[in-house]
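Recall from the previous chapter that SMILES is a line notation for molecules. Here it describes magnesium ion.
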Amino acid sequence: MKLNDTIAAIATPAGEGGIGVIRVSGPASVEIIRQIFRPAGKTKAKLESHRLYYGKLIDGAGEIDEVCVTLMKAPRSYTRQDSAEISCHGSPAVLRRALKAALASGARMAEPGEFTKRAFLNGRIDLSQAEGVIDLIKARSEGAANAAFNLMRGGLSSRIEAVKSKLLHQLTHLEASIDFPDEALETAPDKTLASGMGEALKKMEWLIKSYETGKFLKHGMGLVIIGKPNVGKSSLLNGLLEEDRAIVTHHPGTTRDTIRAETELAGLPVELIDTAGLSDAPDEVEAIGIERAIQAAEAADVVIGLFDGSREWEKADERVLDRLKKARAWIAVINKSDLPEKLEWPASAPACVRISVKAREGLEELLGEIRNSAKSAGDVSLEEPLVTRTRHLEIFRRIAEDIKRAREDLPLGRELSAASVWDALEEIKRFTGESYTEEILSVIFDEFCIGK
Ligand SMILES: Nc1nc2c(ncn2[C@@H]2O[C@H](COP(=O)(O)OP(=O)(O)O)[C@@H](O)[C@H]2O)c(=O)[nH]1
Ligand SMILES: [Mg+2]
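With both inputs in hand, we obtain:
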């Protein structure tokens, strides 16, 4: 991997924009800026780091644009190398010509994620923080952005650092008694070591569990609405999306297929799915729709069971409730609270939320319940550093296994136990990227866009 050449890229998205940014990083950055930028006024003096200069961008053919340029001298830059940013007018033609000028002056085109890769290879951030950067750029909801920001700032790294220092402490005691078995060294007894390992294991188990919530933030939460015909399922989908996505009529059996829509609810990225009503006497098409509704409910992360408060409780509601109870997580909701209530909610049934899609009442409470079901899955608050990536989950599971083994092997011999602690420390290195393979790097950085 080359680090000593200078890379350049358009860092802003394709298309027109108020501003478009060209990014340059590497040892030749200052020289390149000197060649293609003329600061306004008489400031012929050398450009200082971390100051904004206004002036003209030029190439061999003449003036390109009026721009603002910032130099960031090493090591105080994103990549820890000399870097520059040129803010041009956000025209694709201007940006292409500006990039060409930088390339003609000695830069080469950056690969996707190469700026961040340099930040990692130069030790400014660890591998998990680089993953946080890409997750932040790709975040589709407030909750996802929060989790990514946390990861980028080293939220998981610091938790793992705490586990690592505990393990190193254990290792010191384990190895001391291996190296000097005959000397009466003051090493901790097995009981103390085992309880220290237990604490490290607890921290790992908390992180592993947090994935139950964290996975929703990265991969989205599947939320399926089921209920008998005409209870307002399609109306609820539309109400939550705040657009008329599904057809709503007073005819039972309007929705015959599942309808899917991606949105953000309660800060979570959600795939919302409306289904055909679970009717008692379906025709042929309805029967297929019902089959799909049942499949969707079985695959869902959370199922909303919708009931019509303005009608009496009937067999079909009973069946919806039974389906609901089979779901991984579910919320019972009574709709049409704007009408007089005729539904007798069974005493044995669990608590429910009352809403009126029509009057837009109770929807906030429902959103709160959706958020709660995401939180309680992992038993954590959404503000804490959560595991959102399977790469981290897999490493953390292996670390937990290693620690468990180290604890179990204590009575069998300190050497054996130490070997497992070493294994755990190796896994931690994989998490931080202290040890990595080209393959891992390309998997991670290929996800990036050019210019980051
Ligand atoms: N009064 C009242 N009517 C509603 C409410 N929500 C839906 N409806 C009506 O109930 C009927 C069935 O709605 P729809 O969304 O198609 O139900 P679905 O068959 O469960 O998808 C329509 O006439 C809606 O306008 C509500 O909160 N209050
Ligand atoms: Mg419908």
